[in-house]
Design brief:
301 residues, alpha/beta, Arc Repressor Mutant, subunit A, D-Maltodextrin-Binding Protein, domain 2, 3 domains, nine-stranded mixed β-sheet, 41% helix, 21% strand, DNA binding, LysR_HTH_N
Length: 301
C-alpha cells in the first residue's frame, strides 16, 4: 500500500519555509521542535529527496528546488483541505456564519469596506469578516495558498484559474486644478496636454493599467515619471497644479477630492470604467456565501 504525505507534514514544511528556523516553526505549529523535525524528515523520506540544505543551525534555511516545489503544491493542498472542512458548515446550513477572510485592493477598500462591514453585520450578524488590504498580486497569492477566502478586485486581471463574479462597474474620471481649467480644453485631448502632465499610481496597482487602457492613453511621453503610492498622493499633486490624473468615481463619491479646488471632467474613451468583482478558489465549498456577499457589494456600488 502506498504511503501518502499528510496535511500535518505539509503544514510543518510550509511553516518552516515561512520562518526559516525550526524553533520558530515549531512554536507557530504548537508542537515541540523534535516533533516538527521528525514530521519533515518523514516527508523527505516519502518524497525521496532533500527539501532544504543542511547547514549550521544559526543560519536561515535555504530550500532546495524540490523543496520549493513541494512547498508551493503543499500550500495549494492545505487550501483545498481547508475548503473540505468548510463543507461541514455548508451542509449544516451555516453559509453566513463563522469567519470569512476577505481581501481587497487599496483603490477599492477605503471607499467600500466600511459600508460593506456595516451592511454585513446588520444582515448576517453571525458572520465575522476578517479584512486584509493589499495589492492584487499579493492577494491572489494569499487566496491560492488558503490564507484568504474571497477577494474584491478590479477586473479584468489575470486570476490564474480562479472563479469570479462581476458585481458592478466604476467609471473613471479625470481631475484638474481649477486654476488650470482655462488653459486645458474640455473635452480633454491628450495631444493638447503638456508632456509628463499625467500622474499615475505605481505599476503594482492594477488601477494604473485599467485607467491607461480604458481611457486610451497611448502617448507615453504624456506620463510623468513620478509614480504615487496612493490616490491621496495623486490628488495632492493635481491640487497643486502639477498635472492631471485618473480617479475612480467611487473615490469621488466618498469625498476624496472634497475641498481641493479641483474640477472633474470625463477622460477620453467611450464610457471608460473598471469592473468590480469577487474572486475565489474553484475548490471552495462556500460559493453560496460568496454570491450572497456579492449581492451586498453590488447593492453598495
Amino acid at each position: 500500500m502506498n504511503k501518502w504525505p499528510s496535511l500535518k507534514q505539509l503544514h510543518y514544511l510550509v511553516t518552516l519555509h515561512e520562518t526559516r528556523h525550526f524553533s520558530d516553526a515549531a512554536e507557530k505549529c504548537f508542537v515541540s521542535q523534535s516533533t516538527l523535525s521528525k514530521g519533515i524528515q518523514n516527508l523527505e523520506e516519502l518524497i525521496g529527496c532533500p527539501l532544504y540544505e543542511k547547514k549550521d543551525k544559526k543560519s536561515p534555511l535555504v530550500f532546495t528546488q524540490a523543496g520549493e516545489l513541494v512547498v508551493q503544491q503543499g500550500r495549494e493542498l492545505l487550501a483545498k483541505g481547508q475548503d473540505l472542512i468548510e463543507l461541514g458548515r455548508v451542509c449544516q446550513g451555516g453559509e453566513m456564519e463563522g469567519q470569512l477572510r476577505v481581501g481587497c485592493i487599496p483603490t477599492i477598500a477605503p471607499f467600500l469596506l466600511c459600508n460593506l462591514v456595516q451592511e454585513v453585520n446588520q444582515r448576517f450578524p453571525r458572520l465575522n469578516m476578517l479584512l486584509r488590504e493589499d495589492t492584487t498580486t499579493n492577494l491572489l497569492a494569499a487566496l491560492r495558498h488558503g490564507d484568504l477566502d474571497v477577494l474584491i478586485l478590479a477586473l479584468p486581471v489575470d486570476i490564474d484559474g480562479m472563479h469570479s463574479r462581476i458585481v458592478g462597474s466604476d467609471p473613471f474620471r479625470m481631475i484638474i486644478s481649477r486654476n488650470q481649467a482655462e488653459t486645458i480644453k474640455v473635452p480633454i485631448r491628450y495631444d493638447d496636454l503638456p508632456n509628463e502632465f499625467v500622474f499615475l499610481l505605481e505599476r503594482e496597482h492594477c488601477l494604473t493599467e485599467h485607467a491607461v487602457s480604458a481611457c486610451q492613453l497611448t502617448a507615453k511621453e504624456k506620463i510623468n515619471p513620478f509614480s504615487a503610492t496612493s490616490l491621496h498622493t495623486l490628488v495632492q499633486m493635481v491640487a497643486n497644479g502639477l498635472g492631471t490624473t485618473f480617479i475612480p468615481q467611487m473615490a469621488i463619491d466618498h469625498g476624496l477630492i472634497e475641498n481641493q479646488n479641483l474640477l472633474v471632467v470625463d477622460p477620453p474613451g467611450q464610457q471608460a470604467h473598471r469592473h468590480i468583482g469577487l474572486v475565489w478558489r474553484p475548490s471552495s465549498s462556500r460559493v453560496s456565501t460568496f454570491n450572497q456577499l456579492a449581492d451586498v457589494v453590488s447593492e453598495l456600488l
